[in-house]
Amino acid sequence: MGDPVGRLAELAGPPVHKEVVENEFGAQVAETWEYRRDGKSLLITVKDGKAQQIRELH
Question: Which helix (H) or strand (E) holds 56?
Fold first, then answer.
Protein backbone atom coordinates (compact mmCIF):
# COMPACT_ATOMS: atom_id res chain seq x y z
CA MET A 1 0.00 0.00 0.00
CA GLY A 2 1.18 3.48 -0.78
CA ASP A 3 3.51 2.35 -3.56
CA PRO A 4 3.75 4.69 -6.55
CA VAL A 5 1.82 3.60 -9.65
CA GLY A 6 5.09 3.17 -11.56
CA ARG A 7 6.14 0.49 -9.10
CA LEU A 8 2.71 -1.13 -9.32
CA ALA A 9 2.91 -1.28 -13.11
CA GLU A 10 6.48 -2.61 -12.87
CA LEU A 11 5.43 -5.47 -10.57
CA ALA A 12 1.99 -6.33 -11.94
CA GLY A 13 2.13 -5.11 -15.54
CA PRO A 14 -0.66 -3.15 -17.20
CA PRO A 15 -4.16 -3.51 -15.74
CA VAL A 16 -6.83 -5.25 -17.81
CA HIS A 17 -9.23 -2.39 -17.05
CA LYS A 18 -9.14 1.12 -15.55
CA GLU A 19 -12.16 3.00 -14.25
CA VAL A 20 -12.34 6.62 -13.13
CA VAL A 21 -13.75 7.29 -9.65
CA GLU A 22 -15.61 10.60 -9.45
CA ASN A 23 -16.95 12.64 -6.55
CA GLU A 24 -20.53 13.95 -6.40
CA PHE A 25 -19.54 16.91 -8.62
CA GLY A 26 -18.10 14.75 -11.40
CA ALA A 27 -14.45 15.54 -10.62
CA GLN A 28 -12.00 12.66 -10.84
CA VAL A 29 -10.73 11.73 -7.38
CA ALA A 30 -9.13 8.34 -8.08
CA GLU A 31 -8.93 5.42 -10.48
CA THR A 32 -9.67 1.74 -9.97
CA TRP A 33 -7.23 -0.58 -11.75
CA GLU A 34 -8.32 -4.18 -12.31
CA TYR A 35 -5.93 -7.10 -12.52
CA ARG A 36 -6.85 -10.77 -13.02
CA ARG A 37 -4.77 -13.45 -11.35
CA ASP A 38 -5.52 -17.13 -10.70
CA GLY A 39 -9.23 -16.78 -11.48
CA LYS A 40 -9.66 -13.79 -9.17
CA SER A 41 -9.93 -10.07 -9.78
CA LEU A 42 -7.81 -7.60 -7.84
CA LEU A 43 -9.17 -4.06 -7.71
CA ILE A 44 -6.59 -1.48 -6.76
CA THR A 45 -7.69 2.07 -6.00
CA VAL A 46 -5.09 4.58 -7.14
CA LYS A 47 -5.22 8.11 -5.71
CA ASP A 48 -2.64 10.88 -5.95
CA GLY A 49 -0.34 8.56 -7.89
CA LYS A 50 -0.25 5.86 -5.20
CA ALA A 51 -2.04 2.60 -4.46
CA GLN A 52 -4.55 3.32 -1.68
CA GLN A 53 -6.74 0.22 -1.40
CA ILE A 54 -6.64 -3.38 -2.64
CA ARG A 55 -9.78 -5.50 -2.90
CA GLU A 56 -9.96 -9.13 -4.03
CA LEU A 57 -13.06 -10.46 -5.80
CA HIS A 58 -13.66 -14.20 -6.23
Answer: strand 50-57
- Tell me how far apart the alpha carbons of residues 40 and 22 are, in angstroms, rounded to a whole number: 25
Q: What is the DSSP string of 9-52?
A: HHHH-S-SEEEEEE-TTS-EEEEEEEEEETTEEEEEEEETTEEE
Closest CA to 32 of 10, 5, 6, 3: 5
Q: Where are the domains of the chain?
A: 5-57
Res 9 pLDDT > 90: no
Give me the mean pLDDT over the 26-33 stretch. Answer: 97
Q: How many residues does the chain have?
A: 58
Cα–Cα dist 18/26, whole Å: 17
